Amino acid sequence: MSNSPRMIDVRQSVLSKNDRLAQELRARFDAAGVRVLNLLSSPGAGKTRLLEETLRRLGERYRVAALVGDLATDNDARRLARSGAAVRQIETGGLCHLEADLVTSHLEGWDLAGFDFLFIENVGNLVCPTGYDLGEHGRVVLMAVTEGEDKPLKYPGTFQWANLVLISKLDMAEAAEFDAAAAHESIESVHPDVTIIATSARTGAGMGEWMAWLEALRAD
Amino acid sequence: MADEAARKAEATQVTALYVRVGALSSVVPDALRFSFDLAAAGTLVEGARLEIEELPVRVFCIHCGVESELPSPQVFRCPICQRPTGQLVQGRELELTSLEVE
User: Fold this and answer.
1) Which residues lie closer than 8 Å to A124 by C-beta, 6 or more apart?
2) Rounded Cα gap, residues B8 and A166, in angstroms
3) Could B95 and A12 be called an inter-chain contact, meaning their C-beta atoms sit closer than 8 Å?
4) How many whole angstroms separate alpha carbon A84 and alpha carbon A91?
5) Residue B76 and residue A192: Cβ atoms within 8 Å?
6) b vs e for B79-97, b when ≥16 Cβ sit within 10 Å of the residue's Cβ?
7) What number of other Cβ atoms are within 10 A of residue B37's Cβ?
8) Which B positions 6-65 lie with beta carbon below 8 A of chain A?
9) Residue A36 bridge partners (DSSP)
10) Who is most buried in A2, A17, A81, B22, counting CB within 10 A?
11) Beta strand pairing call for A64-70 and A117-121
12) In the predicted model, is pLDDT for residue A84 greater than 70?
């Protein structure tokens, strides 16, 4: 044991434990042939409503499942289960994001090979979840027409992280005086080549394009 | 993590922690400083100095073939040719670089 001051090299990501678990998850998902999506938005942007409609439509041709993260309550899981899909709730007990070990523990007992798609609805939060890899194949960020077109500029790290940006609640665009061009401009400012799809779970607008994006991910 | 590394190196006290935080890491240096003392309490890290190196966003431009620093994380454009670029090179780091120990 030495008492003279010295330096120790660590050079390790603070999230390396999560990253390792996420890699294990991704390997399991790949082996089972299931495509996994990590869904993110601010609270109230319509993740659950969109997911409800997604599970219903996709469920006509594929075997679908969902893990739903919330600080508390299993309301969302009960709501999504009505689509007939396999659904489980992850109550984080106050944690503002999902971590890989929470996903791992909530998959227990599920035969992953029995699913084509697994959706992980993250906790409503546009900051912390982006630091935590969950082993997903696609990262989807939702932004509602009611949120303000400059949201991507306020959360550049999140929109930069996304593989797909879904604009939601398109049916309310007129009432919200949503400026689609301005929204596209701010999304593209922080993430120039990202795919953007405008959707409405209520009217079905854009849902076909979203389904096609998912199917393309499956073919990858 | 720092406590573990220090124990492995048979140190008795950590006097400083060097961390690197990227501009897009979703970690705010001030919040990190604030929570540091709480997290350090009761470990070898208690009382250590926290040295945070803030890393700006860097991108690679395929047109210019060079890497450069972005003046703002809100505008992903090559500062040289002004064309959009999505190729992030640096900015998501959250890394414990080194420890000063006794």
Assistant:
1) A41, A42, A43, A44, A45, A47, A70
2) 47
3) yes
4) 21
5) yes
6) beeeeebeebebbbbbbbb
7) 13
8) 6, 9-12, 15, 19, 23-27
9) A118
10) B22
11) parallel
12) yes
Choose from A1, A3, A4, A8 for mutation: most chain B CBs within 10 A.
A8
Are B26 and A189 a contacting pair at CB < 8 A? no
Q: Residues A202-214: what's their mean pLDDT? A: 97
| Average pLDDT of chain A, as a whole number | 94
Distance (Å, rounded) from C-alpha A55 to C-alpha A86?
A: 10
Convert the pLDDT of each residue in A159-196 to its tens digit: 999 999 999 999 999 999 999 999 999 999 999 999 99
Q: Residue A69 corresponds to which amino acid? A: G
Of B12, B88, B100, the CB nearest to A7: B100
Tokens for A62?
């594929």
Q: Which of A4, A7, A10 to mutate to test the interface with B (most CBs of B within 10 A)?
A: A10
Per DSSP, helices labelled H in chain A are 16-32, 47-58, 75-81, 100-106, 151-154, 156-161, 180-190, 207-219
Residue A29 has pLDDT above 70, yes or no: yes
Cα angle A21-A17-A15, degrees, rounded to a multiple of 5: 115
Contacts of residue B83, Cβ cutoff 8 Å, sequence gap at least 6: B61, B63, B77
State the pLDDT confidence band at A3, using cuts at 50, 70 and 90: low
For chain A, what are the domain ranges?
16-219
Reported CATH class of domain A16-219: alpha beta
Look at residue A46 in the predicted model and tell me its pLDDT. 92
The single-letter code of the amino acid at B70 is L
Q: Using the beta-carbon criterion (under 8 Å), do A1 and B12 form an inter-chain contact? A: yes
pLDDT in tens, B33-50: 989 998 999 999 999 999
Q: Which of B15, B19, B85 sits opposite A5 (nearest CB)?
A: B15
| Domain at B2-101, CATH from 3.40.190.10, 3.30.2320.80, 3.20.20.70, 2.30.42.10 | 3.30.2320.80
